Amino acid sequence: MNTSQNDKIENLQAEDKTALSEVAVFVENDQRSGTFVLKNSSTICGHSQQEGIELLPIAAALKKYNWLEEKYFWKQISKDKSEITRACASSKTPLGYFIMVKKGHKVTLPTQAALYMAKADEKQIIHNIVILEEDSELELITGCVTKQGIDKGEHIAVSETFIGKNAKFTNTMVHSWGSEVEVKPHSVTVVEEGGSFVSNYVSLRPAGKIVSNPVTHLNGAGASAKYFSIILGSGSSEIDLGGDVYLNAKGTSAEIAHRAVCTGGKIIQRGMLIGKEECHAHVDCSGMLIDPGEEGFIESIPGVKAYHEDARMSHEASIGKIAPSEVQYLMTHGMKEKEAISMIIRGFLDSDIKGLGPELDKRIAEIAELAGHGSE
Amino acid sequence: MSNILEIKDLFVEVDGKVILRNINLEIPKGEVHLLIGPNGSGKTSLLMTIMGYPQYKVTKGSILFDGKNLLKLNITERAALGIGIAEQRPPTISGVKLKMLLSYLLDKNPKWKEEIDKEIENSKMKSFLNRDINGGLSGGEIKKSELLLLLSRQPIFTMLDEPDSGVDIDSLELLRSMINKLFSPEEEHPVKRRSGLIITHSEGIIESIHADKTHIIINGEIVCDGNPQLVMKQVVTSGFESCIKCNNLQGSV
Ligand SMILES: Nc1ncnc2c1ncn2[C@@H]1O[C@H](COP(=O)(O)OP(=O)(O)O)[C@@H](O)[C@H]1O
Ligand SMILES: [Mg+2]
Description:
The structure holds two protein chains of two kinds.
Chain A: H1 3-6, H2 14-22, E1 34-39, E2 42-48, E3 53-57, H3 58-64, H4 66-72, H5 83-90, E4 97-101, E5 111-117, E6 122-132, E7 137-146, E8 152-163, E9 168-176, E10 180-191, E11 196-205, E12 209-212, E13 215-218, E14 224-233, E15 238-241, E16 244-247, E17 252-262, E18 266-275, E19 279-289, E20 297-306, E21 311-321, H6 324-332, H7 337-350, H8 358-374
Parallel strand pairs in A: 1-5, 4-6, 5-7, 6-8, 7-9, 8-10, 9-11, 10-12, 10-13, 11-14, 12-15, 13-16, 14-17, 15-18, 16-18, 17-19, 18-20, 19-21
Antiparallel strand pairs in A: 1-2, 3-4
Chain B: E1 3-14, E2 17-28, E3 32-36, H1 43-51, E4 57-65, E5 68-69, H2 75-81, E6 83-86, H3 98-108, H4 113-122, H5 139-151, E7 157-161, H6 169-182, E8 195-199, H7 204-208, E9 213-218, E10 221-226, H8 228-238, H9 241-250
Parallel strand pairs in B: 3-8, 3-9, 6-7, 7-8
Antiparallel strand pairs in B: 1-2, 1-4, 4-5, 9-10
The complex binds adenosine-5'-diphosphate and magnesium ion.
């Protein structure tokens, strides 16, 4: 595809760029290996600029590669699974991205994709495919954002990800939504022998409603999955964030760590580990309540299910509040009360989640800041 | 105003229980005083009250800091006036690393950065930086870490709650040199030493840190004050028993 004709990125307004940068997508950044931007229902750009990685709008990719439909498209999720998949399957020209990293290529710079809603009452229906061939590596930043002032809309996404033998895929999703937007992603990832999948999810401005339960199948020996999520619930948002990991092969491992800060609204954190072979896995759901109001709550539901006697799996859940003695201690070192609260939230969100990049560190600081100020 | 701290007729309650009675205490600018007394006599409570912990309710009396009424101020505002404390049992805050707090303080006081880097080197604290504040540290390590935080801010009045308790001999010297830095002269006034109030049980402190006066607190009341060397000698030989007797004999103090 001749991408240059489709590139209308220079037509993005300053306010669009600001919105995208909020979710870590920087259109003028040359420190990215590829960029995809979907604004409402039009693809603004979709191209890669590093050896070994191909990035195309999904419709173009389906035209270009016959095998895509045969082998990958709708292969992990059935079109009939739910209302969402049916809605997605019925769209004539699918929207979304196709990313493929060729065998042995370790893409050094992150690729970025923005799914951006700039109009009120927009319904975005998306289908993404990511394929990492054997021994390849990729970091993908996916930013989903509504323009400031746009409160209503619907975002439906089907994502199918294939991680080949010994390949490594890190997907960092940053969400920032209008207060009444409904978000319903369906994601399935398959990991082959020795492959690894890291999924980081950060929600800065919560949608009105998010229901997400990404599923990962660790099909090859030694494959691993890590899910980290950090969400801020506020106002009347309803967030139901889960994650199922099937440990289907010998020596597979998984870790799910959910962190939620609730200043209002409902938060349900789930995580289910299904061990079908010798494996080890842990799921941890932690929450912190800060003046959640009458109706606000966090419910944590970590679960484990073992089919094999050598499946070693564990779970924990804890919910707490900020201890006044900790805030006071930080105040003796000169911090204002709000600064102290922010630092404690930051610590809570960071704790035990190692190796987040500088980009995510920044988002965590923002959430801490937002949540700290929510406690007025 | 020649007193940095002036406490008058102070009464303090915790959970409805009176724990400090009729406290009168003056610390002139540039002086470092010691506070000693048996366990449970109210030493820590007095420091926490001066710092502004709201659990310690002042029911009567006044506290002036450099002439300003402290009782109207919250902890942050007191810290901003230049009051600092190294607590006896500081909390651990899960996920909050020493590094985070240190860089917060040094961002505000960049001029101390070099000195602090040196101090971290000297005191072998590099490995603590990425740990939770006070988390999994020994008694002596907690003291070091608290002193390091104070040095990053250089308060003009520092309160230390048993800075040398539970510290092994090897670390004592280091801790004492850090304490002396806290009471070194103010930058703008090279002849004016910074002031403080130190709770201690040991003789050791007065050998390495110049203290101007020692106050004895028993059962929530300050019953005596005097020359640090003389008081310590008396207490070491006859314990606080002699103080109690002495006070009874003298009737009212
Ligand atoms: N936060 C608190 N809650 C309840 N009682 C307290 C609290 N702080 C101090 N006390 C009580 O006040 C008294 C003095 O305690 P403290 O000031 O810690 O003594 P010291 O430091 O001299 O050993 C003790 O009886 C102690 O139990
Ligand atoms: Mg004490």
